[in-house]
Amino acid sequence: MEHQQEVSDFDRVVADIQKQVEEQERTLFSAKVIEQARYPVNVGRMDDPDGHAILWGSCGDMMEIYLRLNGSGKTIEKATFVTNGCGPSVACGNMIATMAQEKTLEAATQIEPEDLIAALDGLPPEHVHCAYLAVDTLREAIAHRRMMDETDEV
Ligand code: FES
After folding, report:
1. Which of 130, 132, 137 to mutate to test the pocket of ligand 1 (most atoms within 8 A of CB)?
2. Angle at 73 between CA 72 and CA 76, to 5 degrees
3. What pLDDT score was predicted for residue 18?
4. Do 107 and 85 lie in a common domain?
5. The domain containing residue 17 runs over which residues?
6. Residue 127 in contact with ligand 1 by CB distance below 6 A
7. Together in a domain, 39 and 60
8. Alpha-carbon distance 25 to 135, whole Å?
9. CA of 133 to the centre of ligand 1 (A)
């Protein structure tokens, strides 16, 4: 009986802490950032990708992006990402992968960090660099693809 009481007290403390963390998250981040960070749908590595890049941000965090192109080789059919970074970097990786899909390589290169930040309904100033890391990694993956095409032409 006493043990059961301790367990339910412990559960209540854990639930309270969880609630506090979630409230704090909501004051710092938009609902979109929280949703993208918690339920990313574009996570993963690809075997034999059509384009790939791995970059490290100034914070030391890593971002990888993989591209799969459609038959014409001009449009991104699928983009995935992997990061070991913060929650916002997961949100940025997931959103940039979504934004790149169905775009031509040219159009995807033109996605700016500000576009990504807007799609996430904003980022706190201390996490703006996470958006730059995601955009730079996407551009690098596209550059990698172009390099492969040029090599094939030679
Ligand atoms: Fe380094 Fe977000 S990517 S803190």
Report:
1. 130
2. 110
3. 86
4. yes
5. 2-29
6. yes
7. yes
8. 24
9. 8
Are 134 and 142 in contact by the 8 Å Cβ rule? The answer is no
120 CB near ligand 1 (under 6 Å): no
Q: Is 29 in the pocket of ligand 1 (CB under 6 A)?
A: no
My answer on whether 53 and 84 are in the same domain is yes
Q: Is the pTM of this model over 0.85?
A: yes
**Tell me, what CATH number does 71's domain have?**
3.90.1010.10
Which atom belonging to ligand 1 lies closest to the Cα atom of 59? 1
39-87 pLDDT, tens digit each? 999 999 999 999 999 999 988 999 999 999 998 889 999 999 999 999 9
Q: How many CA atoms lie within 13 A of 4 on its CB side?
A: 1
Do 21 and 87 fall within a single domain?
no
Q: How far apart are CA 118 and CA 93, in angstroms?
A: 14
Residue type, 16: D
85 lines ligand 1 (CB under 6 A): yes
- C-alpha dihedral sign at 138, 141, 143, 149: negative
Confidence of residue 8 (pLDDT cuts 50, 70, 90): confident
Residues 18 and 55 in one domain: no
| CB 51, CB 67: distance < 8 Å | yes
